[in-house]
Amino acid sequence: MYDPTGQETLCPAGVEDMTVVTNERIAERIFRMTLAGNLVDKMVCPGQFVHVKCGSGSVPLLRRPISISDVDADQQQFTMIYRVEGEGTRLLSRMHPGEQVNVLGPLGQGYPIKQRKSGEHAVLVGGGVGVPPLYYLGRKLVEKGVRVTSVIGFGSREQVFLENELKELGDVYVTTMDGSHGTRGLVTDVLTVGDVDPWDVLYSCGPIPMLKALQELYGKEQTEAYISLEQRMGCGVGACLACVCHPSEETRQNTGKRYFKICSDGPVFGLREVAL
Ligand SMILES: Cc1cc2nc3c(=O)[nH]c(=O)nc-3n(C[C@H](O)[C@H](O)[C@H](O)COP(=O)(O)OP(=O)(O)OC[C@H]3O[C@@H](n4cnc5c(N)ncnc54)[C@H](O)[C@@H]3O)c2cc1C
Ligand code: FES
C-alpha cells in the first residue's frame, strides 16, 4: 500500500512563467525541454508532475500534465521530456529559448524513496513516455547508495531515449516491439527471463497494458512495487474529477474508498492499490 509519508517532504505547488532554456528533438516525436525559474526549488520529489499551459492563447484551454524528468537545483532548471501527441504538445515543440511557459507545480504524490537504504537494489520499469520520471527517480536513488537497474521499452529504435543517461546510473535493458534495438518484445519479457538480479523494490511508469502486466506478474506477491498512471487530466489539483480511477477490491475493503483522483492521490500508487 502506498504511504505518502515515504516521499521526500512535499512542497506546496506554485505557478510561474518559466523561461525556456533548451527545447530539442531527441527521438521520433520526442522533445526535451529545459525550463528555468524559482519553482525548481520545490521539485524535490521524483514522480511529481507539472501542469503546463501550452501556447499563449485560449487554445488549448486546459493545461497538459508532464512529468518532471530531471532537476538541476544549482542552475534552477528542470527538464521535461514529451511526445508530440496533439495540439498542446505540438505548440510546446515550437517554443524557442528565451520564451516563457506558464507552469503550475510540482503536483501529485511522488515515488516513496525515504525508506530506501544503501545497498538495496531498485528496478525501474518504463514504457515510452513513462520513462522520463524514472530518470530523476534513479538519480535520487543512486544518491542514497541504492543500486539501480532500468528496464525500458519502446516501439522501435527511432523512439528510444534516455538509454545513455540511465546507463550512467546502472544496468539498462532496452526492449523494442519490432526488435530494431535491444531485445525484441516487452519489458515484462526481460523481467520474466531472469536476467535482472533479485530486487528490493520496483518503480514503474508507462502505458496501462504494461502496468497491468506488472500487476499480473507481481500483484499476488508481497512485493514492494509502485506504479505511476498517466491519465487525461483537467484541473490537475483534485477539483474537477476528470482523472478518477478505481481502487482495487483489496483497497476498497481496507479503506472504504470508491475512487482515487490520479492528480492528487497519485499519480504514484502501490502496485496492488488500483484496479487497471
Ligand atoms: C501525471 C502525468 C504525467 C505525464 N507525463 C508525461 C511525460 O513526461 N511526457 C509525455 O510525453 N507525456 C506525459 N503525459 C501525457 C501527456 O499529458 C499527454 O500526452 C498530453 O496531455 C497530450 O496533450 P496534447 O494537447 O498534445 O494532445 P491532445 O490533443 O490532448 O491528445 C492527443 C491524443 O493523445 C491522447 N492522450 C492525451 N492525453 C493522454 C494521456 N494522458 N494518456 C494517454 N493518451 C493521451 C488523446 O486521447 C489523443 O488521442 C503525462 C500525463 C500525466 C497524467
Ligand atoms: S484533474 Fe481535476 S481532479 Fe484530477
- Secondary structural class: alpha/beta
Number of domains: 2
Mean pLDDT score: 95
> What shape does the CA trace take?
globular
Number of helices: 6
Distance between the termini: 15 Å
Succession of helices and strands: EEEEEEHEEHEHEEHEHEEHEEE
Estimate the strand proportion: 25-35%
Topology:
Layout: E1 14-27, E2 30-36, E3 49-53, E4 64-67, E5 70-72, E6 77-83, H1 87-93, E7 100-107, E8 121-127, H2 132-143, E9 147-154, H3 163-167, E10 170-176, E11 183-184, H4 187-193, E12 201-205, H5 208-218, E13 225-228, E14 244-247, H6 249-255, E15 260-261, E16 268-270, E17 274-275
Parallel strand pairs: 8-9, 8-12, 9-10, 10-11, 12-13
Antiparallel strand pairs: 1-2, 1-7, 2-6, 3-4, 3-7, 5-6, 13-16, 14-15, 14-17
The protein binds flavin-adenine dinucleotide and FE2/S2 (inorganic) cluster (FES).
Features:
6 helices, alpha/beta, Elongation Factor Tu (Ef-tu), domain 3, Rossmann fold, single chain, 2 domains, seven-stranded antiparallel β-sheet, binds flavin-adenine dinucleotide, 276 residues, binds FE2/S2 (inorganic) cluster, 17 strands
